[in-house]
Amino acid sequence: MEIFQQILFVAALAVVIWYITQRIRLISRAINLGRPENRFDHANERLKTMVLVAFGQKKMFTNLLVGAMHFVIYAGFIIINLEILEIVLDGILGTHRLFAPYITPIYPILIDVFEVLAFGVLAVCVIFLCRRFVTKVSRFQQERHREMTRWPRTDAAVILIAEILLMIAFLTWNASDSVLRDRASSGSLGHYGELRGIVPDFLISQFLKPLFANFSDTGLVGYERTAWWLHILGILAFAVYVTYSKHLHIAMGFPNVYFSDLQPKGEMQNMPEITKEVQLALGLPVTTDPNGSQSNDNGEQPAEIGRFGAKDVQDLKWINLMNAYSCTECGRCTSACPANITGKKLSPRKIMMDTRDRLEEIQRGWKANGNDYRDEKSLLNDYITPEEINACTTCQACVNACPININPLDIILQLRRYRVMEESEAPASWNAMFSNIENNMAPWKFSPSDRFNWAEQVNEVK
Amino acid sequence: MTQDVKTYTVPTMADMAASGEKPEILFWVGCAGSFDDRYKRVTIAFVRILNHVGIKFAVLGPEEGCTGDPARRAGNEFLFQMQAMSNIQVLNGYNVRKIVTACPHCFNTLKNEYPELGGNYEVIHHSQFLQALINEGRIRVKDGQPFKGRRITFHDSCYLGRANKVYEAPRDVLAALDADLVEMKRVRANGLCCGAGGGQYFKEPEPGKKDVNVERVEEALSTGADTIAVACPFCMTMMSDGVKNKNKEDSVRVYDISELIAQGQGL
After folding, report:
1. B199: contact with A, CB 8 A cutoff
2. Residues 404 to 443 of A: which have CB under 8 A from any B CB?
3. Within a domain: residue A233?
């Protein structure tokens, strides 16, 4: 029986590891569709940002209470995972609480900490479910935000309920195990008695012990095994599910912050390929691009200049695509967006969700038709409409609001560049503004020679 | 001296160069500062302050052109770079080192986006410039000036605030006025846009339930302020229009911070 469980466990573990490896490959292949750009520079600054924003969750604390609650889940996730190590080794070796005899003095302290965190995670997940579905925090509601369709709402519920179930499994497993230790005085219950006197009751689960008072010994062993298996299989299933979910941020958040923008938020990225054209047009000497940003990491020059701006995900930079996979769809960006607040169709969250949806559509195409498959669709028009991108005030509120430094604005601006430079599809009044700048050196129809006329009024009494 | 007639001068870089002089700073006026009737008053107020404190400055006058900011944000990178390179040729031709401007969009573009195209200058916003003058004691707002008891709220411009993290300078300038400063709910990094940026100023807004400037003015009015202080020509127009939309133009005024300082100086 023991060995059967061990084989089953190793098999489950192997399948999950294999499957997740496939998922990681597929996702990194999708991210690498983006244009190359070196973001491995300024390691110290990047590391500092990652420590503060990702590990320290600095931006989550804009709202102190929500920040603290999210921190409980985050800390719980990281710290309880230490226990997973023991659980996995127990599963492989067929042991029971492998570490307890070796670290006897601190073992109960560790488990107590895990239990307190588990209880915290459970409580916060219940509160978060209430925020979504009972008190109905506005940014999660479909009535207010059209991108919050059935799947994103279901996804959020699945994640929260799964975490609640996992924590219940963990706590009741400890409780049933404690009861088994109590009963195993005569050594009748096999290994359950071995830790008697070594492992005491735990901080939270001791209060759950009465639940199991009426269980028979067999029933109790059955529950203990079931809870153990549900907990670990749940975690493995969760790990697979996460790769399909908005919840992928638990892994992607860290690299995403590390590689996030370092320049001032107001700075738009230069297009060196245009600099050359403009220098030629103005009869200026053509300077070589100081950053070599046309070459990729290997220093290779692209065979041809791609299109100006972005029509589809391949035209975006890889960081934009990593952003899309890191987005948790929390909607802080959209709540801060002046266009969205005043009822325009633009939602920065939708920009990120559309980008990921488009990438996943391409992935489905690869699976069905081979890795060279290209469909006829594009991010612009099939997912994001011109009406949305035209409504952006480039105020950077979305960029500022994102707890993990995602930049929806960068995508919007690249789509605009495509619309204007490749399709000449700007709103008519923008075209008028362009021609004014071109002809009059000002966005309005004033004669450039009148530009200094204001100085005549400088001595006039107001 | 029988009569205190103030005479303000506005030298151009061309004048200066002709007489072999070099100004301390170049005042970048910007298109709104040059052509917009309301913002021309801000330009004049700032020039009067510069004259008053005796700073050797110059403007480009007719040689100045749009920085290209609205074209770039709307997606027209060609036009932006044409503008940028023409301006950089002029600025580098005069060997300009230090630029002050009252427009956060010009400020952001000159400061952050011109270096990559060959234009390297020390660029400061007029709020920072005024803050320095106040700190150095070169501007002292006299007691009993018209600000006592007035309530002023400051509207953060996106391209000054979030874009470049200049939050305190305009507030320090206003603090020198000895008025009652009140903050809106969404301020500094969380400040709400006036609705003009990203080329929005130059087109009709997309369909929605409200205009952004109205949303922002409602927030400003809720503070009970009688003065909305701005530090950007586009915020100026949007906030003024919003105040009109709410029929409050008789009781609530929109001023640039340099106008308030000029008023305080009796300029």
Report:
1. yes
2. 413, 416-421, 426-427, 429-430, 432-434, 437-438, 441-443
3. yes
Residue numbers of the domain that contains A194:
63-242
What is the Cα–Cα distance from A45 to B82, expressed in whole angstroms?
Answer: 33
Find, among A456, A410, A395, A51, the residue nearest to A257 by Cα.
A51
B81 touching A (Cβ < 8 Å): yes
The Cα B69–Cα B198 span in angstroms is 8
Cβ distance A416 to B71 under 8 Å? no
Architecture field, domain B141-264? 3-Layer(aba) Sandwich (3.40)
Window 99-158 of A, Cβ < 8 Å to B: none
Task: State the pLDDT confidence band at B143, using cuts at 50, 70 and 90.
Answer: low
Q: What is the DSSP string of A92-118?
A: HHT-SSTTTTTSTTTHHHHHHHHHHHH
CB pair distance less than 8 Å for B190 and A336: yes
**Whether A32 contacts A318, CB under 8 Å:** yes
Q: Please judge whether B108 and A264 are an interchain contact, meaning their C-beta atoms are less than 8 angstroms apart.
A: yes
Arch. (CATH architecture) of B13-131: 3-Layer(aba) Sandwich (3.40)
As for the ipTM of the complex, it is 0.96
Nearest by CB: A438 against B79, B209, B210: B79
Q: What tokens does A96 get?
A: 């029971």
In a domain, A363, yes or no: no
Chain A residues touching residue B71 (CB < 8 angstroms): 433-434, 437
The domain segmentation of chain B, as residue ranges, is: 13-131, 141-264
Q: Reduce the DSSP state of residue B230 to 3 states and report it.
A: strand
Best CA proximity match to A11, nearest among A233, A240, A235: A233
Contact between B156 and B165 (Cβ < 8 Å): no
Interchain CB distance below 8 Å, A264 and B163: yes
Question: Is A153 contained in some domain?
Answer: yes
User: For residue range A195-253, what is the model confidence (pLDDT) as tens digits?
Assistant: 888 899 999 999 999 999 999 999 999 999 999 999 999 999 999 999 999 999 999 99
Determine the average pLDDT of the residues in B104-127: 98
Q: Position of tokens 């298996």?
A: A229
Nearest by CB to residue B193, choosing from A287, A397, A448, is: A397
Q: Answer yes or no: is pLDDT of A132 > 80.
A: yes
Chain A closest CA to B52's CA: distance in Å? 13
Query: Is residue B230 classed exposed, middle or buried when 0-12, 13-18 and 19+ CB atoms within 10 A define those classes?
Result: buried
Rounded CA-CA distance B98/B110 in Å is 11
| Distance (Å) of CA A407 to CA A103, A335, B255 | 46, 15, 33
Answer yes or no: is pLDDT of A254 > 60: yes
In a domain, residue A112? The reply is: yes
Residue B200: is its pLDDT beyond 90? yes
Which residues contact residue A389 at a Cβ distance below 8 angstroms, ignoring those fewer than 6 apart? Answer: A346, A380, A412, A415, A416, A419
Number of domains in chain A: 1
